[in-house]
Structures are given as structure tokens and as C-alpha cells.
Amino acid sequence: MGEKKTVAETGRRNDGDPAGSPRPRPRAYHHGNLVDAIVQATISLIEERGTEAVSLREAARRAGVSSAAPFRHFPNKAALMAAVAEQAMERLTASIEAALAETSSLAPMARFEALGRAYLGWAFDNPTHFQVISSRALVDLQASPRLRQQNEAIRLTMTDLLESARRSGELRTDISVDQIVLSARAFGYGLARMHVDGHLPEWHPSEAPKETAMSALASYLRTLRREA
Amino acid sequence: MGEKKTVAETGRRNDGDPAGSPRPRPRAYHHGNLVDAIVQATISLIEERGTEAVSLREAARRAGVSSAAPFRHFPNKAALMAAVAEQAMERLTASIEAALAETSSLAPMARFEALGRAYLGWAFDNPTHFQVISSRALVDLQASPRLRQQNEAIRLTMTDLLESARRSGELRTDISVDQIVLSARAFGYGLARMHVDGHLPEWHPSEAPKETAMSALASYLRTLRREA
DNA sequence: TCCTTATGTAATCAGTGATTACATAAGGAG
DNA sequence: CTCCTTATGTAATCACTGATTACATAAGGA
């Protein structure tokens, strides 16, 4: 029923002062916005120790509350991870949108490539967060409407760009746009996931993995273009 | 130092007879081959309840030994999962080799497609096992030389086939074979992983996901062939 | 002012991976 | 055959985890 107005500064707990201050100073029983605090704690936990090390209790500890407190805001650990994933997905989406905005004057295929580079770039720059938004083990895609919708939005953007490309004669014509979208998603997802899962160590050890991915993307896109 | 000969039937424990038989009948203190028993228990556990539900203790329980016993044979849970993964990888490899044997008389690209179909077919038929051999969360690829080597063998086979295809003029010539191998691996891995991770629900809900993947593979391969 | 509701805590449960000290069986050396 | 080392098992325990319950307090409207 309506958003809860943040109880502006009802007193954060973490104002130093360890081991019980002489003057009790009630110090606010309620946290203010534990939801954000816990999500933030979880994110820092992920960045420091990886997705496997995430624990509800440690997140609670970092937020300075009891281990049962998070359950007031998330029914279970999966729900917390979903919240983290949604936030990560937001950043990925923003990154893609920025790339598309920067290339708004270019041809569809160039913009499609920009989208791909933004996606791969984000995944390689934020491997653990990419892990969160992708592995089912951490968060059930189907259980989070928001995540599903954000995913779908990207897919639709890809479809739009490729349809434009087809109309402008940039795209090969012997494969349906839907098929190409699926193929391209698999390619990008696969490349990112292979990196995250440690399946790309033998490839040009000297070269940075991100650059490897980018040039693989370029080659892949070449196969989609209409022959000159 | 040398393989341990199986102590042939030194007395399995699971010969019914619950709750302590009247005549003690030592019944063999040593299990015989706990390693296999535990790996097998883990596999059945994975099949019944998924990769997330795997627990060393439950596997021990199913093998009829104490919860500390597995640690005599595996330094930790990851090592057990690695053993399971190696076995799964063996089956995947066998499936691919069978497909290649069946198509030994065909042209390189046709055999390359057979390899792809075998890979995707196996992944779609054994999603949880595919999960085990791929996600780093379950087993560290780099820590298991056997797994790495099996993976590398597939990669080499792909390279060989594509080089043959190039020599016979079946393959497009504007992209290096190594690049194509990487791209193809990403495509296949991505498709399989998307399925396993639940990222392929919206695509032709009527069609079976496996068929969807197969036709996506066919389209993808079309982009690799030299233009007629 | 009172009283409902949201939000926190402490205590507890069942389950996990891992380690330790101890017990027993196997199987070769003498 | 006997002894004794070593491989392999067990019970007990530790430090954790996710989750639930009963209880306490704060917020804020009627």
C-alpha cells in the first residue's frame, strides 16, 4: 500500500561509539532503510569475496542489525539476491542505453555493434555482477518480473536494430531476424559466461580477455552483414 | 603409486539386514570402493534434486558411511564435484566422438555440424550435468587438469574440422579459423547455458527448446559457410 | 492517549563443510 | 603365523549458514 517514506535520519546505528555508550541515547531502534543498507552490504560482500561468499548473516552484520532482521524485508536469500540482481541489471541497461545514445546518428548495424560492445564491456568489467544476473543458481530469472522485463527490453532493442538494418540493406537476408537475435544473444551470453566461468584462459594469454572478446564480436558481426 | 586393486567384494555393507543383525558378522569395515559409491551417490543426488542440493553428508548417507568418510577420498567438496564433472565430461566427449564416427565419410562442415548437434543435444538432455561441467561455482575448471584437457580436446577437434573445411573451400575465408572456433564455442556454450539458466522461455513456447537450439545452430553454421 | 502495525532482537532449529582424536581392518615384513 | 604400519572408517565437535519463533519496541494515525 504505497511507498514507505524514508524516516529521514531517524538515527543511523553506525555512529562509531563501540561497546555501549555511557549515556544510552536510544539511538533509534529502527534503521531507516534497512532494505537499501542490506542490498548495499551484499553488493560490497560480492565485490570483496565473490558471489559464493554471500551470506545473509554477514550482510546483516555489515548493516549492523541482527541476523533475523533481513527476513523482515526479504522472504529468503533468493529474494535478496534478486534485489541485487535487479540493481545490477539496471546498471547494465544504463550502460547499453548510453552506448546507443552516443551512436544515435549511426547506421543500425553500427549501433548493434555498440550495444554488443557495451554488453560485453560491462560483463567483463563486472564479472561477479554479471554472474549474479545470469546464473539461475543465484537468482531465479522467472521469479523476478522486473529482471525478466529488463531482459526482454534488451532483446526487443536488438530486434528493432536488426529490423532497421534489414530494411536498410545492411543485414544478410537468408536468416530471419528472430533467429539472428537468438544467435547473437547466445554468442554474447556465451562469451561473457565463458569468461566468468574460466573457460577462456588459453586464448592469446598475452592479450587482455576483454579485447579478445571485442574482436570476436567484430568477427561475428561480419558474418551477419550482407555480402558486399 | 599404482592403482589400488579393488578388494573384490570384500563385503558390501548394503546387504539389507537393518538395525543390527543378531549375529554380528563383522560385515566388512572397509567399503570396497567408497570413491565410486560416493560419486555415484552424488550423481543420483544431482539428478533427483539438482546441483544446488548436493551435500557431502547426504552423499555419505546414501553410500551408507559416516559423514567424515568422504574426506578420506576427497580433500573437499569441490574435489568431489570435480570427479563428478570429469565423469560427466567423459560422457559428453563420448557422445561427440560417436557423432563424429557416424559421419566419418561426410564433408568437414557436415561433421562440424554433427559435433555441434551432439554437444547441444547432450547439454539439453542432461542439463544438470552440463551445469556441473560448466559453472565455476561448482567445480574449478583450472583446478582439474583432466577437465581442462578434455575441454581442450574438443577445441582441437573443432579446429581440425574447420581447417579441413577451409582447405576444401567450405568455409568463408575472411575470418581466421581460431576466431571462428572461439565464436562457435561461445555460441554453443551460450545456447546451452541460456537454456540451463532459464533464459530461453519466451522463444516459440510451442516448440521444444532442443529443436529451437538445433535450428539456431543450423542458421549459425550457414553464416560460416562460403557464399555459393 | 491509546493501540495497531512495522520493524527490530534473542533464542533456537536443522543442516552444512570441515577437522580432530580415535578405532579397526588389510596386508606386507620378519 | 605374528607383528606392525598404513589405509580407511567412525564419533564428536566446530564454526557456519538459512530460516522460524516468541517477544520487544518504536512509529504514527484514530
From TrEMBL, chains A, B:
The record ties this protein, via Pfam families, to: TetR_C_33, TetR_N
Keyword DNA-binding among record annotations: yes
- The UniProt regions of compositional bias labelled Basic and acidic residues, in chain numbering, are 1-16
Q: Which GO terms describe its molecular function?
A: DNA-binding transcription factor activity; transcription cis-regulatory region binding
Q: Where is this region: Disordered?
A: 1-29
Instruction: Print the keywords alphabetically.
Output: DNA-binding, Transcription, Transcription regulation
Please name the PROSITE patterns in this protein's record: HTH_TETR_2
Query: Which InterPro entries does its entry note?
Result: Homeodomain-like_sf, HTH-type_TetR-like_transc_reg, HTH_TetR, MT1864/Rv1816-like_C, Tet_transcr_reg_TetR-rel_C_sf
> Where are the coiled-coil regions?
none
**Please, which domain of life does this record's source organism belong to?**
Bacteria
Segments passing through the bilayer: none
Q: Which PANTHER family match?
A: HTH-TYPE TRANSCRIPTIONAL REGULATOR RUTR (PTHR30055), TETR-FAMILY REGULATORY PROTEIN (PTHR30055:SF220)
What is the name attached to this protein's record?
A: TetR family transcriptional regulator
